[in-house]
Every structure is written in structure tokens, then in C-alpha cells.
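Structure ticket #2291
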Amino acid sequence: MIVRNNNFIRNALTGGPTNGGFPSGAIYLSESGGDSRVAGRTANIEIYDNKFTNNWAGVVLWENADRFCASPSNTSTGYCTIVNPAATLTTCSNPATGGLVNQAPYYSDCRWKTQNVKVHNNIFSIDKDSIAQCNATLGCGMQGIFSNSGSSPSWSPYMGDVIQNDIAFHQNNLFSNNTYIGNWNFMAKTQGSSYNYALWQARFGQDAGSTINGQSQYLVANAIDTNTATLEGSKGTWTNWFNVATAQSTDQAHTGTHSLKVTPSDQFWGIESVSTGFPVTPANKTISYWGRMSAGTMALSMEVTFVDAAQNPVGSTTAIPLTINAAGWVQASQDVTTPSGAESVIIKFDGANGTNGVPFYLDDIVVADKAS
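Resolution: structure written out below.
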């Protein structure tokens, strides 16, 4: 299939908000792709030289991990793929009853794959303020290459993240040389995920040669979500670790109107983000935060740990110390090298000379990409 020289304007604006956060694309491909073994004008699906304007989402590539020939989730009941005539309802069935779906070539040929999709040289423009209910949680302003986690039938060889990894990394699906205008997010590998443009490029190898709002190298201003960083909307992901109470507060603020109020109940105290980590790019980081005492003086430290996809630490934990007092806000800032293999960063604060009942405040906590 070739899709080119079209204008896609304001598609899926009615259905998008009701689709449970699954992005409703102006173009949606489900178990659709190219295969050179099947005759056609092209062995790829190519989508290029189009202009997408204020659609609910852009181009969404999806593959149902549980859909394959002989699976109960196969909506094309009684049919198999045409890439291999030997892939039949019998050979693609349960290995316990003689099926061969867990063996080559049937492991591959029993599936309808979203593969060999090329999305390039398009213009994707969105003004979220002009679209009712448009936010990333509802899948608005998304591009996507993702799957669900395989869960059925019990004999499926595609359980867990097998197909999620395949559609994202191994099936030759590629966005490139596109122009993005506006605030875009990217659902990649996992249904329900949301990444920024920098992570879409760095972690998933997408959109080489593309630009977003005129930038070819996109630096993340803060990997930490807004509320955890600035406390303006809520307490974010901060929680009590030991000997401490935390609260969103208007008592003090470095910027805006809120900060994190931390009240120790012992000289030894600690707070942590309950997040499993904030996704980061491979770029080196500038990490900073601001602090202020309500009375007296105290030393504290921000503990920064980079982790891999399995939540295992990579590199050593970095401590960024700061001494605060009641005279005013002070900042700690440090450049940190992002270790190879890091996918997320976990942050904590602790200290050893707190005073029972005497609060202090934290604000504007930043993990930013550092320009090379």
C-alpha cells in the first residue's frame, strides 16, 4: 500500500476521547504490513508526502499479540496468513496436540504482522487547544508503534512482551524525515505508554532526520513530571521514606505558589519518589534542586540512581549535597554522566541532622538533558 499526497484534517475528534486512551489515528494499521512473498506493487506500506492537521492522533501501528492463526483471538475465524501455504489451522495450533506454532517457520508465518511500514516526509501539525478534551492520557496528539502484552491462549508462544519487542524493534517499522508542529507524544512498544520526542528517537530509533517545532536535536528540559518537580498541581510522586512527613504546601515557594514541605521526626530522615523511575535519554544530565529551611540550618542530599529496563542500577548512585537555612532559597546543581544502559532515573532525598518538627521546603527539582 502507498498513501501519499493527501490532507488528513480533524479525523477521530468524536471517537478519540471515548477510546479508553488507545490513540485513534488518522491512519490506523492493525496486523497490516508488507511482505515480499506476497505479490504487490510494493513490499512495504509507505505513508509519505501527506499533511496531517489537527487529527486526534497521527499514524498508529498496532499488533494484537494474541491474534494469530488458530488462536481464539483470531477475528478472521477459519483463515490463516497467505505468506506460507503450509501455515494452516493445523500447523498453527496447540503444540500439545501436534501443532507447530512454536517452531520455525510457523512461529513467524502464523502471525499477521504489522511490519515494513515506512512513515516519512509527512507534516504532522496539532493545536491541542483547538481540540476538545485533547490530552496525552486520552491518546490525543500521539504517534504509535505498540502492542498489548500477550496473554492467551495458554499455549501461545507469544506471551508477555514478545510481540511488543517485535513490533517496536524487529519488524522494520520506521518513521523518518517528518516535520512535527505542536505538542506531540509517542506510544511505543507498550500499550498505554507515553514518551517525548527525545525518547522516541533515542530509545526506539524513530524519526531520524525529522524535526519538532524546528528542532532536530530535542533536549528534555526536565525528565521529572511537572507536579513532582514543581508541586504546583499536587504532591506528585513524593512519599515518606523514613522518619518524615511530606505535604504540598503554600508556606514557601521558589517559583509559582507551592513547594514540598518536609517535616522530619528524627535527625535521620528520608523521602523518595514512589515512581519506578523517570524515563531518560542517553544524553548527559544537569541535575538541580532548590531548598529552604523554616528555621535554623540543615544539610541534605539528593540521591540520584540510574536504572535499566529491569530496574537494576547502572553506574553508581550520585549524591548532590546542599546546606539550607531560613535566609532564603538556595540551589544545588551538578552535571552528571548518564551511564550506558540507563532507561530511567530514581531520586530520593535524605539527611542526618534534621530537627524533630522543624520543616524545610524543596522546589523546582530538575533532571535536564545537557547540551553536548
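Closing remark: Helices lie at 106-109, 162-170, 197-202, 226-230.
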